Amino acid sequence: MPLRDHFRLPVSKRTSWEMLHGMWPAAIVQQLRNSLPPGYTAGPRVHLGTFYEIDVSAYESDEARPTPGWNAGGGGAAVAAWATAEPSVAVEVEPDEEYEYAVHVYDAEREQTLVAAVEIVSPANKDRPEKRNSFVAKCAALLRAGVSVCVVDLVTVRQFNLYTQLMAFIGQGTADRMSADPPPTYAAACRWGKRGEKSRLETWSHVMTVGQPLPTLPLWLSETQVVSLDLERSYEQACHDLWIT
After folding, report:
1. How far is CA 89 from CA 5, 85, 92, 93, in A?
2. What was the pLDDT predicted at 176?
3. End-to-end Cα spacing for the chain
4. What are the C-alpha distances in Å from 24 to residues 57, 67, 154, 187, 240?
5. Is residue 62 part of a domain?
6. Which pairing describes strands 113-121 and 148-153: parallel, antiparallel, or unpaired?
7. Does 218 reside within a domain?
8. Which domain holds residue 178?
9. Count of structural domains within the chain
């Protein structure tokens, strides 16, 4: 069955693109359940909204206890209050909301080490320069950590190609002929790591066209282990489950 345009009529009237993006990772996981070798697991990752990561936290207790040397209005030694200088920058900004639709594959025998990721691009990932840069930087960091990355982009309403931007980000902007005329919809598998004595970047890229079948990508689990990622089969399963014809 062919690729549909989930962002325009008539498909967009029947189901939203969010439904497909939420369902597809689970369909990919079900497919990988039958193809991953022993010792590997896969799971969907769907995250909407803002990421919060706190390295050092401070809390206010209902039962405050005086700290030695602190004068809280009576008793104890007085301590001079420290006043900070005016900030160098003070601007109002919107929260950096991240929308992630992905499948992660882990090596369970190495304490659930992440070895592969399938990133399904959302409209928010292609929205503004900072969003595109954030997505590209995340993929580059995964590749540098030895994680193979597949980027799948069905977003027809925004023309940016995050795979070619990723290639440019890592210094290979003209290595793929797709960069000469980047299509808005595409799929690519990437891996970067040691190949013998040298470091090597390898990619497998495909243009995806509405009305045409989706490609099959290599999903690398290690330097020598690879399984097929049949995008057409998992996509059709997700469409079937959502009554998308």
Report:
1. 43, 12, 10, 12
2. 96
3. 9
4. 36, 54, 12, 15, 11
5. no
6. parallel
7. yes
8. 11-48+95-241
9. 1
